[in-house]
Amino acid sequence: MDYWKFECTDFDDSGLMVAFLAQYPFDSFEESPMKVSAFLPAKEDVAAIEVQLDLLKASWSFKFEKVLIPYQNWNKKWEDNFTPILVDDFCCIRADFHELPAEVQHEIIINPKMAFGTGHHETTRLMIRAMKNLNFEGKKVFDYGSGTGILSFLAEKLGAKNTEAVEIEKPAYENAVENAELNSIKRVTLILGTLMDVPETEYDIILANINRNVILDSIPALKMRVTNEGMMLLSGFLQQDIPKMKTHLEKARLKIVDQKEENNWVCLTVEKS
């Protein structure tokens, strides 16, 4: 099947850009800090999508260009470009056609497809390094913006009693369902939807690797869902966002207890103060 590739640039927040695009019938995305590419099956009404994006531009600044991508063996293409990720000697993220590196504590198998969330982004690695420092044994976990399931699956491997994971983008959610089977995951509940679709309960650990704006908007709701002794790991924002993050966290009486950085990306470990 042919695809239209929409390349979106000149926006403020790549995560928010993807959230906007997810409203339309794109079936996959490629994301970077400076560009988001959204793929639309050629059978869809491309003219109608262009109209919608032009309307969106009236209220939110960005640019887009489209190009027709002729049929390719997409799975083969993604497999060829997918390389294993090794986070220290703690966790390896690989496809089932890769060999497991020696002396790694945990492995997660990901079926690479046209949906982001393969673990190559800095924020995923930062979250994994932060998770290494927490005790998940017997804990109840919430993964907010779970993507293809990597962090939820690692939580189970670290001993979490159960994990509820919510993802708004259907391609990533469907990939997570496949990946759960690949990893023999038993204690993760995958939910397609938003925070409103998750049961209102308290969690010992909350994982939120999304983007700055979603996290800022969600801080009060997330605080209500974490136990008094619980921890939250927050990532998906840059170093220049830290002052704004600190202001919102302090207002919610949340305390930063650890900060990790990689290539200008940040992960914060937070607890109730």
Account of the 3D structure:
This protein is α/β, with parallel strands linked by helices. It has two domains: 69 residues, Alpha-Beta Plaits, CATH 3.30.70; 153 residues, Rossmann fold. It is built from eight helices and 14 strands. The strands form three sheets. It has a seven-stranded mixed beta sheet with strand order 10-9-8-11-12-14-13, sandwiched between helices. It has a four-stranded antiparallel beta sheet with strand order 2-3-1-4, with helices on one face. The protein is globular.
Keywords, separated by commas or semicolons:
Alpha-Beta Plaits; 4-stranded antiparallel sheet; Rossmann fold; 273 residues
Oligomer: single chain
Using the 3D structure, state the CATH architecture of the largest domain. Answer: 3-Layer(aba) Sandwich
Helix and strand composition category:
alpha/beta
Strand order of the largest sheet: 10-9-8-11-12-14-13
**Element-by-element helix/strand order:** EHEEHEHEEEHEHEHEEHEHEE
Q: Mean of the pLDDT scores?
A: 88
CATH class assignment of the largest domain: Alpha Beta
Domain unit count: 2
Overall, the morphology is globular
- Predict the CATH topology of the largest domain: Rossmann fold
The level of helicity is 25-40%
By DSSP, the count of extended strands is: 14
Strand content: 25-35%
What is the topology?
Elements (H helix, E strand, L loop, with lengths): L2 E7 L4 H8 L6 E4 L3 E7 L4 H12 L5 E7 L4 H8 L3 E3 L3 E4 L11 E4 L12 H10 L8 E5 L5 H8 L4 E6 L2 H13 L5 E5 L10 E7 L2 H14 E13 L3 H10 L2 E9 L2 E8 L1
Parallel strand pairs: 6-7, 8-9, 8-11, 9-10, 11-12
Antiparallel strand pairs: 1-3, 1-4, 2-3, 5-6, 12-14, 13-14
Helix pairs in contact: 4-5
